């Protein structure tokens, strides 16, 4: 059985750890609030720009735009996996990586050449450890990134797609649905996919000035940049929420451990006092 001194030392260590996890929880809570505000603020713009593209794409003469055109046979696919630079966020990174590996394996079964781009130190560490090849890696995307960072990625990917260096570009990230719901998803950013609901304005008598082709030519790059930026915003918000939850769980676990150790310490101390009393009583009885 541990001595009272050893138990006191453990209680002190756990209390110090609890202070750290509690501080990290508070920091993550503040960062999560800012990140979620950005996600919520940017979604109306993203939704409206998709709606406009749907209306434009419904026009027969623009439906064959290069960035909208699906290749009949996918020979080469680019997979972008977005993770965090840091850990201590529960299963956030593991879930995204699991989804990414599953997609890569699925492409390989279809004899599709896969080009992998990694965003985040955790993805890089995982692929290096597993000895899985990748074409490029980036570590500068964090909670301070802006639209310009996403724009650089999107412009590079649009160029690759336009030159037919790749036939499809997928982004795997954790999408923010609500404070209690974030899930890893796979979204195709190129070719631009138009849902039937987004084509619902086809029958309405819209007049476009200048012509639909010119508008789409200008609007599509903006939409692709916004889609990628939205993915990075969602990923950051999900990361901060996951870290807040992980740190809260760690803080709660530390509190439970402190209670258990305090109870153990009191029992050891009580046993020691009882033993000392028994020894005193026994000694007094022996003298008499």
Structural description of this entry:
- It is a single chain.
- With 288 residues, this protein is an alpha/beta fold.
- It folds into two domains: 4-24 and 248-286, ATP synthase, gamma subunit, helix hairpin domain (Helix Hairpins, Orthogonal Bundle); 31-245, Pyruvate Kinase, Chain: A, domain 1, CATH 3.40.1380.
- Helices cover 60% and strands 13% of the residues.
- The protein has a five-stranded mixed beta sheet, sandwiched between helices.
Which spans of ≥5 residues are poorly predicted at pLDDT below 50?
none
Q: Which oligomeric form is depicted?
A: single chain
Shape: elongated
Instruction: Please count the helical segments.
Output: 5
The CATH topology of the largest domain is Pyruvate Kinase, Chain: A, domain 1
SSE pattern, N- to C-terminal: HEHEHEHEEH
CATH homologous superfamily descriptor of the largest domain: ATP synthase, F1 complex, gamma subunit
GO biological process, one term: proton motive force-driven plasma membrane ATP synthesis
GO molecular function, one term: ATP binding
Keywords: ATP synthesis, Cell inner membrane, Cell membrane, CF(1), Hydrogen ion transport, Ion transport, Membrane, Transport
Pfam families: ATP-synt
């Amino acid at each position: 059985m541990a001595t009272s001194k050893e138990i006191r030392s453990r209680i002190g260590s756990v209390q110090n750890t609890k202070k750290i996890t509690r501080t990290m929880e508070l920091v993550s809570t503040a960062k999560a609030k800012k990140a979620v505000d950005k996600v919520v603020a940017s979604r109306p713009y993203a939704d409206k720009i998709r709606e406009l593209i749907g209306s434009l794409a419904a026009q027969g003469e623009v439906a064959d735009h290069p960035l909208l055109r699906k290749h009949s046979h996918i020979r080469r696919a680019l997979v972008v996996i977005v993770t965090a630079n840091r850990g201590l966020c529960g299963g956030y990174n593991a879930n995204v990586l699991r989804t990414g590996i599953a997609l890569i394996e699925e492409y390989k079964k279809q004899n599709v050449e896969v080009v992998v781009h990694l965003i985040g130190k955790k993805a890089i560490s995982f692929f290096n450890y597993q000895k899985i090849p990748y074409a490029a890696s980036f570590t500068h995307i964090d909670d301070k990134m802006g639209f310009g960072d996403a724009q650089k990625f999107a412009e590079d990917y649009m160029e690759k797609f336009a030159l037919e260096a790749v036939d499809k570009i997928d982004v795997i990230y954790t999408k923010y649905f609500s404070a209690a719901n974030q899930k890893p998803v796979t979204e195709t950013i190129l070719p631009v996919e138009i849902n039937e609901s987004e084509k619902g304005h086809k029958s309405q008598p819209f007049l476009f000035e200048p012509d639909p082709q010119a508008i789409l030519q200008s609007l599509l790059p903006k939409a692709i940049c916004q889609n990628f930026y939205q993915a990075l915003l969602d990923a950051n918000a999900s990361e901060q929420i996951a870290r807040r939850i992980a740190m809260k769980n760690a803080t709660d676990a530390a509190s439970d451990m402190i209670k258990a150790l305090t109870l153990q310490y009191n029992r050891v101390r009580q046993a020691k006092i009882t033993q000392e009393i028994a020894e005193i009583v026994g000694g007094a009885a022996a003298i008499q």
